[in-house]
Write a structure and sequence with these properties.
single chain, 373 residues, 49% helix, nine-stranded mixed β-sheet
Length: 373
């Protein structure tokens, strides 16, 4: 790919969200224990080399004592660091590519750098082979993700987790740009598929492309870390909305049953289901409200001193409207419970009237019999 005006070499790289998580509770262990476990796990893979997990010392870990979870489902990795790095090289022979991504052409060798940021870990995947064709780095993210997920043993101390979109829906490039006014300049080139995001670096600020790449990871890391946290929040809201929709459908099914049994269940059993659905709706609404407030504060914090490079992608994923599924479920509860309450009142009044009539008839009969006696 040609970037008019650029000079020197060009590096393509892909972005994803990867993490290595403890499988079980490790509350009494340290950050260095985690680093050792990650190193030991990666060392069991014959195609992984140049493993580097710098000593973390007394680095603070969040969620270190929590039960083993899943980055894709829970709020943070287990454990979560404000700052940590995992580096390694990995070789995925081309003969294995079709088993993972049939028909895709990609590099065999990659350098993977995972930076843990304040909000979320971010993975940078750099092809080490020259491969013709756009999107080789993004394909590499998919290859590495699938390979690690398939080959890390279930008995290892740590497991591999990822969050989509991995790869990020853009093709990233870094190129020398001569003398610039800033250390980095960024151009976003919209395309029919993934956008091209082209970074150029000021050659007077860096000795070579690799040095510029290291600096760029630190430069865009906070934005990407925030992006994937917002993605996880959005995914959590989607799961909550799907659960609300499932419960709403169960309640509707309960109200459409026919016959005496259906009527009995509708009048005397559906109330508990409606209350459960109401609580799920309130939980989803509170979650959306909290996400909205957190997102706004996190975005303000991220961009308080600079405009950044990826603001449009951040804003797009931060859109936080309440799911129509949740709104519909709230209406379902209101309508069905209103109808059930009225039907129950009518049933109870009718039953009381009939019971009164029967009781009155019995009393009359008894009085008549006593009079005859």
């Amino acid at each position: 790919m040609s970037f008019g005006g650029g000079v020197g070499a060009t590096m393509e790289f892909g972005i994803g969200c990867f993490a290595f998580e403890w499988r079980e509770e490790k509350g009494s262990r340290s950050a260095n224990d985690w680093a050792r476990d990650v190193t030991d796990t990666l060392s069991t893979l014959p195609n992984v080399s140049a493993i580097d997990v710098p000593g973390l010392g007394d680095t603070y870990m969040w969620r270190a004592g929590a039960p083993g979870g899943d980055l894709a489902i829970e709020g943070y990795a287990h454990p979560h660091f404000h700052s940590a790095t995992v580096r390694f090289d990995i070789t995925i022979p081309r003969r294995h590519h079709d088993l993972v991504l049939p028909g895709m052409v990609a590099s065999e060798n990659y350098r993977v750098v995972i930076h843990y940021g304040p909000e979320s870990p971010v993975a940078y995947v750099v092809p080490l082979d020259a491969v013709s064709g756009r999107g080789a780095a993004s394909t590499g993210v998919m290859l590495v993700r699938k390979h690690l997920a398939q080959h890390i043993s279930d008995t290892s101390k740590v497991k591999f987790s990822s969050v989509g979109p991995s790869p990020f829906h853009a093709e990233f490039y870094l190129a020398a740009g001569g003398r610039l006014n800033e250390i980095f300049e960024c151009d976003v080139v919209p395309t029919r598929g993934n956008d091209d995001i082209v970074f150029r670096y000021d050659e007077s600020s860096f000795g070579d492309l690799v040095e510029a790449q290291t600096a760029l990871m630190q430069e865009v890391g906070p934005e990407l870390s925030l992006y994937y946290q917002l993605v996880r929040s959005r995914n959590a809201r989607s799961r909550a909305a799907a659960e609300v929709a499932r419960q709403a459908q169960t309640l509707v099914s309960l109200h459409t049953e026919r016959g005496f049994k259906g009527r009995w269940r509708r009048l005397f059993q559906s109330g508990a289901q409606a209350r459960q659905l109401s609580l799920a709706v309130m939980d989803a609404e509170l979650g959306a409200a909290w996400d909205s407030e957190h997102s706004e504060k996190a975005i303000q914090s991220c961009y308080k001193s600079a405009d950044g490079y990826l603001r449009s992608y951040i804003d797009a994923v931060a859109i936080n409207s309440l799911s129509p599924l949740v709104v519909n479920a709230r209406n379902v509860v209101h309508q069905l419970e209103s109808g059930r309450t009225k039907e129950l009142e009518i049933t109870l009044v009718t039953t009381a009237t009939l019971a009164g009539a029967v009781a009155g008839g019995l009393i009359s009969a008894v009085v008549t019999l006593m009079g005859q006696g």
